[in-house]
Structures
1.
Amino acid sequence: MIGLIKKSIVRLPDMREKGALLNFPNTITLLRVTIIPVLFFLLLSPGRTGSLVIAGLFILAALTDLLDGYLARKYGIVTVMGKFLDPIADKLIVNTAMILMIPIGRISAWVVAIIIIRDFVVDGVRAISQSEGYVIQASQLGKRKTLCQIFAVSALMIHYPFLGADAHVVGTVILYLALVLSIYSGIDYLMKFYRNMLGR
């Protein structure tokens, strides 16, 4: 009888296991995406308090990005799923926030379009390169661009004067810096891809 019970028990994956689909860092990544429905309140053109609350939640989500990466490396549970989910979660959150701020006039549509198109092109180039046996690692330029985007989006969400500074102006300036880094890093990825293809 005991033997039958033991056989009927389905062993659940340990969250600490390297190959577990939903280990703790991956779970944090998935929870981070739950901020997206909250971002749609931006369409209501929230006032000072509402904007600050939404910005606070966005910043919290950005901080969890650092947390899940740190935990995955610290405990040796970096997984293929984690590497796949993490950048997608980041792009979904940041791009959704930028798109939703277009109708309420906090961000220019053409800036958002260029940044998103650049991301699609770079992701495509990296995928093609990998299929050909070449891995184009994420560059420091690309990481700085992402960091600038997060700071810019946070400030643009706050929008109103905050801590003695005009959050909207600060966010706009940082966003244009992110745009420059976007274009520059995109060209860098394309050059690396071109050199890889020529070196075959």
2.
Amino acid sequence: MYRKSRGFVVNLNGAGMQKSFVILSLGTAVIFVLAGILFASQAGRGLSSQQVGKMTVAMSSGVLLHTMSYEIPYFEAVQKNEENIDVSSLAFRLITSINPKDPRSFLGNELPGFSLFDTEVLVSGKELALSELPFESSPPPEALKKEADTAKAAPAQAETEKPMEQEVLSTNGKKVFFIYNTHNRESWVHAVPEARAKNNPDLAMDSETNITLVSKRLSQSLEKNGIGSSVGTTDFTGRLINRGAAYALSYAESLKAVKAVMAQNRDLNYFIDIHRDSLRRKSTTVTLDGKSYAQIHFVIGMRNKNWEKNQQFALKVHNAVEKKYPGLSKGIFGKKGGNGEYNQSVSPNAILIEVGGVDNTIEECYRTADVLAEAIAEVYWEAEKVDAKTKPKRS
């Protein structure tokens, strides 16, 4: 009995088959080349906290709960009430870094000057609209050149909101904090007649009544908490005006002062640059227990290679503020555009704090400065306790 064997022959001579084979070969080659470039560029690197943060931010609460439910059964029941998981949208965002809900992800690298809006939300107590993100605008030339016609008296110090407890801890005369103002002439609409008349926040610049008053208040409050601090009094904006230099060079100018005080005082380890935001009142004010406060937020320069250490310090202060005054801190924001470093490479304890906006009052800023001092003191003394425990005992 004979068996018949059947077979088939593939004809590759057809034009359609040849075209398909060429496309498949080229596609495979491109995939291997891209994979090789990707892994070569990431060789020796692990996932940074920034990369992990971006991945988790890209995920909705439903996705996170669903993922966690594989290990923690409790979340399986919780995530049933959450929204449906859009896997395709999540994958697209992770692969391309494009968020369909955020137009900056489409336009950020294409439009000149759009990098000013590249603020990343590192820590936030609530969901923020794009219009609520911190924004730093350069004042017009007339605001920089204008000098005060007559000397104005500084606003009266607001009463401390609640009496401080009797000092127990002290730096014993050592100045460990340096507080300064890179944009030292930032003022408020109510304090500048021209800005008030035109209702133009960009004109809220003044050589006397300005953000330096808040720095002085913060320093005084830190002293009441036993922490020695000094306040920089250099008029950086005035220096730039006299030299005819661009306002964008403000941080280069203030960095000189920071390095100078560091060389003079080795005890300095904390550096705080105080600013006020350009946003209007509704985005910079909160009412707590019947009193209005100027909201704060922290800015971390992500061009500093050690920016995560600065973020850790900012996070401790943010948490301390939110623990006692929920809603006072808007969060921590990272920026790569603009200056992108903000003199924060000088110390892991260097941060930039925006206190209120152009429409806040001096009294509101003073209240916030007192709260901020309490939070900073709490973080500082806790760190001192940890350092004392880790230092080797002398025999």
